[in-house]
Specification:
Layout: H1 9-20, H2 27-39, E1 43-50, E2 56-60, H3 64-76, H4 83-89, E3 95-98, H5 99-102, H6 111-115, E4 124-131, E5 136-144, H7 152-160, H8 162-174, H9 185-191, H10 200-211, H11 215-222
Antiparallel strand pairs: 1-2, 1-5, 3-4, 4-5
Helix pairs in contact: 1-2
Length: 224
């Protein structure tokens, strides 16, 4: 399947199911199924991001053997170093982003990659970022655990469908009261890490190292 997925009868049926699922508890299950159909990826994690609280789990169909090892760890703090969450924090526009394109230059040698990311079993990951407003977004992480790389044509289908997918998410989130506001002690702890013993610049350097940036990358980001 490639190129013609958006014109297929199956896609039209999946799209109709997503529309019917608006304001229903299984909306994101239907939504994820449609994104997996278009992209060819096998698993999905959907979270609601906010500047005022930690990520909120909306849906996932992660393989059980990997979910048990990684999902709790991600929500308890690993998300702070996730490059896709970094996109939201840096006000990136709506879009489809491949990890290999957005990860810091030293990401695959970082402690985060060795101690956490390898446990996910992922060989490829893309993130679908849908901004709801300046402070809220839906992040859909699509994962591939096979050795065969993703079909570029299929990712193009998903990118083409992004305007429709974005509108569906906005409608879904507006269907609720939208008033969830959890505290975010881990976010504050990360931003304040070492501030009693390090200078502001030293704290910035430590945080960038934890995220997987090399010395060269840190120098460029901080203008050193």
């Amino acid at each position: 399947m490639s190129g013609n997925a958006l014109a297929s009868v199956q896609w039209q049926e999946i799209l109709a199911e997503m529309v019917e699922g608006l304001a229903q508890q299984d909306f994101y299950a239907r939504f994820s199924g449609g994104c997996e159909f278009l992209s060819g990826y096998q698993s999905t994690l959907v979270v609601w991001l906010s500047t005022s609280h930690r990520p909120i789990h909306l849906y996932d169909d992660l393989p059980e053997e990997f979910a048990a090892e990684t999902k709790t760890a991600w929500f308890e703090g690993a998300y702070l170093l996730d490059p896709f969450v970094g996109l939201f924090e840096n006000k990136a526009p709506n879009g489809l982003y491949r990890l290999q394109d957005i990860a810091p230059d030293n990401f695959f040698d970082s402690e985060y990659y060795r101690s956490y990311y390898l446990q996910t079993g992922l060989t490829d990951e893309v993130g679908l970022l849908i901004n709801l407003d300046n402070d809220h977004a839906i992040l859909l992480s699509l994962g591939n655990r096979e050795s065969v790389p993703a079909d570029v044509a299929q990712l193009t289908d998903l990118q083409t469908a992004l305007p429709v997918l974005s509108q569906l998410c906005r409608r879904q989130q507006s269907a609720g009261d939208g008033q969830i506001n959890f505290s975010a002690p881990l976010d504050r702890a990360f931003r304040n890490f070492g501030k009693d013993h390090l200078s502001k610049r030293e704290c910035e350097v430590v945080q960038l190292i934890l995220k997987g940036h090399s010395n060269k990358s840190i120098a460029q980001l901080l203008g050193i």
